[in-house]
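Something for you to look into today, if you have time. Could you write out one complete protein record for me, on any chain you like? The space below this message is yours for that.
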Amino acid sequence: MYPFIRMTKELWRARSQPRLALGETHVSHHVCWPWDLDLWKELNNGRTLTLYDLGRLPLAQRSGLIDVLKRERWGLTMAGVCVRYRRRVRLMERVEMRSRLIGWDRRFLYIEQSMWKAGGECANQAVYRGAVTDRNGIVTTDRIMAAMGHEATSPELPEWVRLWLEAEDARPWPPQM
């Protein structure tokens, strides 16, 4: 089940935190509960992606994007993700989640997220390709930035993100199965 109560708590907390500029990091803290586990008693890989919502949506709120989405009647969707898992997160273990916008192109926003264990080790990291949508499809990022009151140009995306995007472009769609 989706963690609605946890999300409500995170969005409530984010309301009292200062606004974030584009590229600044939203930090949140989370616990691996029994319902987050897989058969091996560690954080389920699919649940990891769901928990990343708990950082991504408050980031959008603190940056002012949620207000724009409501005002313009736009939606927010994820159009891709690349995840690297490196350390197990066990039952009742606490993690620090870091979420930030790392850049954008004409159509997509790129958000980097990571979970850090108490000892300072990174447990996992993801980069998401997100899109803002209206009834006609994807809203271009220049319209998004203008609606948010920004005239900023995107920072250059890291090479590893650009290579991921090239690989995604080379991947056949629809799948050939």
Q: What stands out?
A: The mean pLDDT is 97. The chain has one domain: 4-170. The first helix runs from residue 4 to 15. Strands lie at 26-31, 75-85, 94-104, 109-117, 122-134, 137-138.
